[in-house]
Amino acid sequence: MEPANEIRSDASLFEAIQQIVEHECVLVRDARRKLTGIVTTADLSRQFAQLGEPFLLLGQIENNIRNLIANKFTKAELAGVRDPADSGREIDDVSDLTFGEYTRLLENPKRWETFAIPIDRKTFNDELKRVGEIRDDVMHFHPDGVGPEDLLSLRKFTRFLNDLENKLV
User: Helix 41-69 to helix 148-168 angle, to the nearest 10 degrees?
Assistant: First the structure.
């Protein structure tokens, strides 16, 4: 039988990752050396999913939005929604836009007609703005993380965009 690998209870998960991956688990001991628990690869996977899912969903949402916008607007129209505070940035295609610029592009009724998606513009843009707010919290590592309601919103909007893109293809 192999000796167990141990970590201190005040160690960060990042300190323990290599040991957990290598040995499939580590025992956790407190400052008095009392055994307080075990961390397994399953625990590591759950933690990764909890931390990583919002990033992955946001990436998928942005890709879906880009795909829906692609080839519908001219370079000049795309450049026209560029953040005025960032006027030196080149806009060659939809991948050069920020999330806020997608919203600015699609909230304009005339551009919405060009977008030509058979759904309500206001409803779509309200959801897009909500996702943008969640995105800001995620990308700026808000201390509270992503709450269950926000995560559900991201999942629903991702499914909606996937379904929409599949219907339009």
Answer: 40
Containing H/E element for 113? helix 109-115
**Where residue 80 falls among pLDDT bands split at 50, 70, 90?**
very high
Read off φ and ψ for residue 48, nearest 5 degrees: -60, -45
Distances (CA, A) of 43 to 35, 85, 119, 147: 17, 44, 41, 19
pTM of the entire predicted model: 0.78
DSSP per residue, 38-104: EEEHHHHHHHHHHHHHHHHHHHHHHHHHHHHHTTSS-HHHHHTTS-GGGTTS---SGGG--HHHHHH
Nearest to 31 by CA among 15, 11, 14, 12: 11
